[in-house]
Fold:
Amino acid sequence: MTAGGLLARAADFAALGRPLHLAGPAIFYGLGLAAAHHAGAPAGWGVAAAGLLTVAAAQLMNHYSNDFYDLAADVANSTPTRWSGGSRVLVDGRLPPAAALWAARGCGALALALAAATATAAPAPWASLALLLFAIALAWVYSGPPLFLHRRGLGEVTGALLVPGLTALVGYQLQAGAVGPLALLAAAPLCLFQFAMLVAVNVPDAAGDAAVGKRTLVVLLGVPWAARLFVGALALAYLALPLAALAGLPWPAALAPLAAAPIGLWLAARVAGGAWADQAAWEGVAFWSIGLLVASAGLMLAAFALI
Structure:
């Protein structure tokens, strides 16, 4: 193979892992660190860096696994967007499916090794290891065997709890030695934003998913009801912010995501107004749903840093 061919394969392999999607979990993890430091935990930058590498390896495992186990649904999907329908690398035949499977297994093994090393340096090694192993296992069974949660109507809930929720809790645990209420309060609104985002990105995939028996919530409920669920999740996320503040989350951190509320209001108005039925709107709704989640988490993290 020529050097150009090798570079093309390497680029395809990188695209298969969707590295841009690593940014969100890094912010959620940082939020957990910031919450722990605000609660008085000493800064352990070495274990924090090791934990971030563990999170990244587990996330890459999930990305490669998703593309492998979702291949039939992605092939059946005639309406993919840049944010849904997989990376399209396997669908387009640019790499063999086995490449995704072996990459997922390799990243999973790396995540497990890093988890063991990270936990050893953490304030509470056994509790930290248990939380890391649980998060890695959940990331695998989200789309992989034996549970295939995202095929059984549990993908949206699992992803919402796993990506912002458990990632933030891992960051907190590795610094404080135990999961505190501050981490739970910070993560709760973000879990609702993540849930809404997953509903949004599953709408363009619904026909392909249904054709191969992949039963997401969008498939099970139908797109109109999924749209109502999307709006409801956004409303609950914004309601959770002041409630979290009343329960002990610092007010600046609780109010910071409101700076991105115009995006949330616009999304809710678009979806409630029928954007779910307009194929041309799916790309924008998915993009801005992702943007809302990342912006809200980033604003909360910045608030913690300032206070």
Q: What stands out?
A: Residues 189 and 237 are 5 Å apart (CA to CA).
